[in-house]
Amino acid sequence: MNSTDSALGDGRIPLEHWLIGVSLSSAALIVICLYIPCIMVFLDKDLRSFAAYTFMLHIGVFDLIQAVMHFVSGILTIVPYGYPTHSFDWIVGGMAEAAWQGYISLNVVLAINRFLQMAMPTRTDRLFSSRLIKLYILLAYLYMLAWLIFFYSNTCKFVYNKSIYTYHFDFSMPGCGLASDINGLLILGTWSIAPKYITMTPYHYFAISVQMIIISGSNPLIYLLFNP
């Protein structure tokens, strides 16, 4: 038993948990603070007449949801919260993962929009009319909702494990194997394939959690840098 396990066993909060918990919450809070002014700008009526800004507005909503959930994960790392008693973290984890799924789907639509705008601008108006833009956004939210229902059912849960400082699938539940496979296809191996070939330590998973927060924060940083 290492010092961290010993501290957890007698109810003390290890210094390591304090450092990592504060790091996660601080990084997430920075993302939230960066994103709020961007969201306020995207709400401008003139900007919302452009497809790209409309998509970026709703991508921002997905990003903010994830950032808030990662902020909570930092708190869960610090407080005396015993794993594997998942009395609350599955709600937060399910919301974070469902928002990520919605974020990915709408980013794909935005990428297609930008490609068509440059390569085939004459077709952009047909594929991205005002009505179709609303439909694409609605489908992204419905896709997120479908994952949310899935995670909030008794089929699968996405929980926070403070021993490795990240959210993960609860493979004791029947539907998590399939959900993990779908998730692995979407992220091309960093999360699902790498552990099969290298020994993953808690710090590897902590790095993945930080990477998730940085990805969420990259959009507002780019917006603010190139739109002073």
TrEMBL record:
Give the SUPFAM superfamilies listed for this entry: Family A G protein-coupled receptor-like
Cite the entry's keywords alphabetically: Membrane, Transmembrane, Transmembrane helix
Keyword Membrane set for record: yes
Q: What is this protein called?
A: 7TM GPCR serpentine receptor class x (Srx) domain-containing protein
PANTHER family given in the database record: SERPENTINE RECEPTOR, CLASS T
* Native organism taxonomy: Eukaryota, Metazoa, Ecdysozoa, Nematoda, Chromadorea
List where the protein spans the membrane. Answer: 20-43, 55-78, 90-112, 133-152, 172-193, 205-226
